[in-house]
Amino acid sequence: MTPQDKARELAALYTSVANGRELQYDWSSPSDADRRWQTPGNHSPLMSSDLSRWRIKPEPRTVYLAYKSGNRALFIPEEQAEEYRADGCTVSKWTEVLE
User: Fold this and answer.
1) Are residues 45 and 14 part of one domain?
2) Exposed, middle or buried, 44 (CB in 10 Å: 0-12/13-18/19+)?
3) What is the pLDDT of residue 28?
4) Of 5, 55, 72, 82, whose CA is between 20 and 30 Å from 40?
5) Domain range enclosing 66
6) pLDDT number for residue 7
7) Shared-domain flag, residues 11 and 51
8) 46 and 26 in one domain?
9) What is the pLDDT of residue 15?
10) Are 24 and 54 in contact (CB under 8 A)?
11) 52 and 67 co-located in one domain
12) Number of folded domains that form the chain
């Protein structure tokens, strides 16, 4: 990665912070099976940082699930929820939980 590429990547992280997003750092060690993303407090990435260990905290996703007895469940857009309810479907809203 060239210094210019790294600067662009770092600028994208800082632009996200300026737009209200939160950064997370991967605190896991190489022997950990899964990454452990945590908010780093007042620490932030630098040009000398390994930027693969930094990310913009993901936003939780919301999906709608429509189900009618005897039929399979469908994931539907929010705009169609009332239409499916009017058709006799049970519609539930699911929001992802992020740690």
Assistant:
1) yes
2) middle
3) 86
4) 5
5) 62-95
6) 95
7) yes
8) yes
9) 96
10) yes
11) no
12) 2
- Spell out the SS3 assignment of the chain: CCHHHHHHHHHHHHHHHHCCCCEEEECCCCCCCCCCEECCCCCCCCCCCCHHHEEECCCCCEEEEEECCCCCCEEECHHHHHHHHHCCCEEEEEECCCC
pLDDT (0 to 100) of residue 2: 93
Profile the chain (99 residues) by mean pLDDT over runs of 10 residues.
94 95 90 84 91 92 89 89 92 85
**Which pLDDT value is given to residue 65?**
93
Residue type present at position 61: R
Verify that 9 and 50 share a domain, yes or no: yes
Residue 96 contacts by C-beta under 8 Å, 6 or more apart in sequence?
60, 61, 62
> What is residue 99's predicted lDDT score, i.e. its pLDDT?
64
